[in-house]
Amino acid sequence: MKKIITLAIIALTIASNAMALELNEYKVFYKLNNATTFRSLDRYLKLNDIQKENLKSEFSATGEKIKAAVNTEDGVAAEEAMNTGLNNLKSILTVEQYEKFVLALNATIEYNREIKYLAAE
């Protein structure tokens, strides 16, 4: 029984590490407060004025934390900053808006991975 539990823990650890972002992939959070990006996000999520102001503040705070973590090559701090920022977004956005935001964020990260992969070929 102990062997099964140990193997399960090892498998979960490997799977979570495989899904973790590389440090450079956190840079997508820097661009969320970019005027063009924010306008597109506003149209996509149909934000109200209060949500816009709260998102700008949250994106700025999260971006700074992630930038500091990336600059010091601290993957754990970058992951924590991202998770904290995403959790804070849950209180700003509706459930539908949050799901759409996460979908767009994941699509952007995946797109950047594909571009990097194609450039390496």
Question: How would you characterize the overall build of this protein?
Answer:
- By secondary structure, the chain is mainly α.
- The protein has one domain.
- Helices cover 79% and strands 0% of the residues.
- It has five helices and no strands.
- It has helices spanning 2-19, 35-45, 49-71, 75-92, 95-120.
- The termini are far apart.
- Residues 11-19 have low confidence and may be disordered.
Helices and strands in order, then pairings?
Blueprint: H1 2-19, H2 35-45, H3 49-71, H4 75-92, H5 95-120
Helix pairs in contact: 3-4
Quick description:
The protein has 121 residues and is mostly helical.
Tags for this model:
5 helices; mainly alpha; globular; 121 residues
- Give helix % range: over 70%
Number of strands: 0
Cα-to-Cα separation, first versus last residue: 46 Å
Total number of helical segments?
Answer: 5
String of helices and strands: HHHHH
In this structure, how is the largest beta sheet organized?
Answer: none
The low-confidence runs, each spanning 5 or more residues with pLDDT under 50, are: 11-19
Shape descriptor reads globular
Helix-strand makeup class: mainly alpha
How many domain regions?
1
Average pLDDT confidence is 82
Over all CA atoms, what is the radius of gyration? Answer: 17 Å
Which band does the percent of strand residues land in? Answer: under 5%
